[in-house]
Amino acid sequence: GKTQSRISFKSIFRDLEHPEIRHPALFDWAMVGSIIAIGMPSLMRQGLNSISTMILNSSAKPYGDAAISAMSIVAKVIGFMFCIGLGIGQGFQPVAGFNYGARKYSRLKSSYRFTLIFSTILLGITGCFGFIFAERIVAIFRDDPDVVSTGTAALRFQSVSLLFLPITVSGNMLFQSTGKSVRATFLAATRSGLYFIPTILILRNILGLTGIECSQAIADLLGGLTTIPFVVHFLRGLPQDDEPA
């Protein structure tokens, strides 16, 4: 044991004393590019979430602190619910990646269907709970009539749109785990970016506070509808298990 430890320390110090020693495998730019491509959808999702939050607060500002507080509360509640679907989707990722790499396409399809159905049922139940008890949920955070009124409407809108989140999340995870980074990045950008930002900027001028309350729900609906043709085209294009990819 001591001999092995000495050898290990000598190896470490030798590398430090001779910086000319390099390991080309550590600088495989193709691998670096692959890592970036796989992580880009998550980066896009988190980055646009931050931007959309700033735009949401800016849009709610003319309606006072109550509106800002209400939308912030709803964002936190829906964010928690969204994490349920995201967690299921992330659990699906290694299954999808393994079966796609092993060319077990029937298993990939069945695991995707299971993920979609299970997450839809779970988020559907969660959405029903949020819709029915919206007023009480908002009041837990802030017992102010204006905050509760605005927050209740927004939470009910988004509780209904939770039914479309499993489509977007599971589709995004499917493409991310099978190396389709461009499609995964595009779909990751729909919920908080490509659809939400234009929607809230337009509806706040047309419907006022109601437009702000329903903007995220509309973005979720559009994101789900956009994901469907991408997923259908991908799954239909998969060969049989015994065929080469």
Residue stretches low in confidence (pLDDT < 50, at least 5 long) are none
Total number of strands = 0
Biggest beta sheet summary: none
Q: Mean pLDDT, as a whole number?
A: 85
* Tally of alpha and pi helices: 10
Report the sheet-strand fraction: under 5%
Measured between the Cα atoms of the first and last residue, the distance is 48 Å
Rg on CA atoms, Å: 23 Å
Task: Summarize the helix and strand pattern as letters.
Answer: HHHHHHHHHH
Structural class, from helix and strand content?
A: mainly alpha
Instruction: Describe the global form.
Output: elongated
Helix content: over 70%
Tally of separate domains: 1
Brief sketch in words of this structure:
The protein is mainly alpha-helical and 245 residues long. The protein has helices at 2-17, 29-60, 65-101, 105-132, 134-141, 145-161, 165-177, 181-194, 196-206, 209-236. It has one domain (40-236).
Describe the structure.
The protein is mostly helical and 245 residues long. The chain is built from 10 helices and no strands. Helix 4 packs antiparallel against helix 7.
